[in-house]
Design a protein that fits this description.
The protein is an alpha+beta fold and about 650 residues long. It contains 9 helices and 31 strands. The chain has 2 domains: about 270 residues, Transferase(Phosphotransferase), domain 1 (Orthogonal Bundle); about 270 residues, Lipocalin (Beta Barrel), CATH 2.40.128. The protein starts with 7 loop residues before the first strand and ends with a strand.
């Protein structure tokens, strides 16, 4: 343990130990600079409080885990000389490290330079990976437990409250059921019944990375209850919010602090490796459309790809689970509820341009893959693409008031026909229009089937943009969108919609069934319209789903979110400066909505007999396939 300047002097004997100075304290005990008279050496002595020492269950567990911690040999773990009980106190006798703890250093000097911050995290990660390999979970990774010597060597201390990963006690370390640890660095699952595991330590290490880069805890300035709520519901904060030069670390912190453990880096070392990669990433540059010179108009950010996701046994993550994604064909049956993980790490940011953007043409219409140019021999280069996480929608559960229409947004039913075709392939063949949703096995050959550890789920081909939708193997639905120039096959921008995945308020017991996918997207000029929704009953998310979002692709700004319960059909249609989308499900009102493309306001609403599944623009009309009815609708927009 460290011996910081200003340690409070004390005196007295505890067993063979002469206490010289109090050098640290916390909820789990006090740490003293002490002299071990039996071994003739100066040590750091941690004494556990009596209320823990009196608990027989804790005493036994403490002894067992102290034995495990004492076996760790990684150079970045504080060596434990001995442990046990003396004069009624449980104790840990550790090497005394001359230096200071990271929390004290940050309080004195503020954030560390990025190079030093990464070096600190790498050394902590080495200690954590060693502990995890031996089946030990630290559970209290934080700056005050990181000890730095004058040479910059880092130790991870306080393994005395660690937990054996094989022990199933629900995370309770004392006579209470409160989770052990420090709230500022605790992963969301630590506040529930889930067993603490190594991925909770990875989350805490990501919190430490944010703090050493910015000088602030991830959710600083909140009271204790608000901190808990922020870990569970709020998007991780961006280092770039404190300084733009830290933008390369945004993705590292976001993934490390993902709400769902499976979405985090698989090991502490993988997080540290990604931080090292971010440290060496090029500074943001810009090429405008008229000259090959830097400009501040449109940021371009690139990075080498993250290492492949590996499990605890070192196996690389498998490809998709085979669950039906948005690009899959489906028969007309009631949706099957699938268990899905809640995605995470959602934060505001600036769009990442990668290559000169082609000047936008007229608004895109729905086309098939035949509208794109012939694929090049080489795959579309996505290695340097860095999707920018976007902020979550408001997750409002208030449905829109049906728009009244009028001269600016009138919808007129031209025909209404019962639909007896149960297979969508047959339906598209019957109407003579190709399905605009391109499944992975039908995508152009140069489209990468995987990207950044995620699987291709759908391709949307438009004259001015080839939109690729990806999802991680643990997710049922698509959450990352990459836009590619259909002619040059160069990526333009990429967005991560993980923050949209799961509404924070769900019906009791149904939260794991809600997985909001990116269902459809269209770029019109410099605006990208994206719909997000799931196919289960809206009550599963408290009604806070099925949004439309408009994004300015020149700077990544979210222009507006629509009201919820507006669009859960597989497609919508951009018509001039209007967006026509459909929403409905069993037991709910079914509508075709017209939204103002500039504001997201619902201008007009057309009641439907059943839930809309596909909305297509066919000449001057809209074709709307519902569960049991086909509509041809004439939009008349003044």
């Amino acid at each position: 343990m460290s011996s910081p300047d200003g340690a409070r002097a004390t005196s007295g004997m505890v067993g063979p130990y002469r206490l010289d100075a109090l050098i640290g304290s916390g909820g789990m005990g006090e740490v003293y600079r002490a002299f071990d008279t039996s071994q003739d050496r100066v040590v750091a002595l941690k004494l556990l409080p009596a209320h823990l020492s009196d608990d027989a269950r804790f005493r036994e567990r403490f002894r067992r885990e102290s034995r495990i911690a004492a076996t760790l040999t990684d150079p970045h773990v504080i060596p434990i000389h001995q442990h046990g009980e003396v004069d009624g106190h449980l104790f840990i006798d550790m090497r005394l490290v001359e230096g200071t703890d990271l929390a004290t250093l940050l309080a004195r000097r503020g954030p560390l330079p990025a190079e030093r911050a990464v070096a600190v995290v790498e050394q902590l990660a080495s200690a954590l990976d060693a502990a995890h390999a031996d089946g030990l979970v630290h559970r209290d990774v934080k700056p005050s437990n990181a000890l730095l010597t004058a040479s910059g060597f880092v130790y991870l201390a306080d393994f005395g409250i660690a937990r054996s990963a094989a022990e199933g006690d629900g995370g309770s370390a004392t006579r209470t059921d409160a989770p052990v640890g420090t709230l500022a660095y605790m992963a969301p699952e630590r506040f529930g019944p889930a067993e603490p595991d190594r991925l909770g330590d990875v989350y805490a290490l990501a919190c430490v990375l944010h703090e050493v880069l910015t000088g602030r805890q991830p959710f600083a300035g909140l009271d204790l209850a608000a901190v808990v709520g922020a870990h569970i519901h709020r998007a991780p904060p961006l280092p770039s919010e404190h300084h733009p030069d830290l933008a390369a670390f945004d993705r590292v912190v976001a993934r490390g602090m993902a709400k769902a453990p499976a979405d985090r880096f698989p090991t502490a070392g993988a997080l540290a490796g990604a931080a090292r990669t971010a440290l060496t990433a090029p500074r943001p540059l810009v090429r405008d459309d008229h000259a090959s010179r830097p400009t501040a108009a449109h940021p371009i950010t690139s990075r080498p790809p993250d290492p492949p996701s590996t499990g605890p046994d070192g196996a690389t993550s498998a490809a998709g689970t085979g669950a039906a994604g948005p690009g899959r064909r489906r028969s007309r049956t009631l949706p099957v509820v699938l268990v899905a993980t809640a995605a995470a790490a959602a934060i505001a940011g600036v769009v990442a341009y990668l290559g000169a953007s082609a000047a936008p043409g007229p608004g895109p219409s729905l086309t098939t893959g035949s509208a794109t140019s012939t694929p090049a021999d080489a795959p579309i280069p996505l290695d340097g693409v860095r999707p920018v996480p976007l902020p979550a929608p408001p997750f409002d559960a208030t449905p829109p008031e049906p728009g009244q229409g009028g001269a600016s947004a009138e919808l007129t039913v031209v025909s209404e026909t019962p639909n007896d075709i149960t297979d969508e392939d047959e339906w598209f063949a019957e109407i003579g229009i190709p399905d605009p949703r391109i499944a992975p096995d039908e995508a152009p050959a140069d489209v990468p089937r995987t990207f950044d550890g995620a699987d291709l789920r759908q391709v949307i081909a438009q004259p001015d943009a080839l939109l690729l939708l990806y999802a991680s193997p643990t997710a049922r639905s698509a959450g990352v969108l990459v836009a590619v120039d259909p002619k040059t096959r160069e990526p333009r921008y990429a967005f991560d919609f993980s923050a949209y995945t799961t509404a924070p308020v769900t019906a009791p017991g149904e939260g794991e069934f809600v997985d909001q996918s990116v269902r459809w997207a269209e770029q019109v000029g410099d605006v990208l319209y994206v719909s997000h929704g799931h196919s289960t009953y809206a009550a599963s998310s408290g009604g806070a789903n099925a949004y439309l979002t408009a994004i300015d692709v020149t700077d990544g700004r979210v222009l507006w979110h629509s009201p919820p319960l507006v669009s859960n059909a597989s497609t919508f249609a951009a018509v001039g400066d209007r967006v026509v989308a459909g929403y409905g499900f069993t037991g709910e009102d079914d509508y075709l909505h017209v939204l103002d493309g500039s504001t997201g306001e619902v201008l007009s609403s057309l009641p439907l007999r059943s839930g809309p599944e596909v909305v297509l623009l066919d000449g001057d009309d809209l074709l709307v396939r519902c569960y049991d009815t086909d509509y041809r609708v004439r939009p008349e927009f003044g």
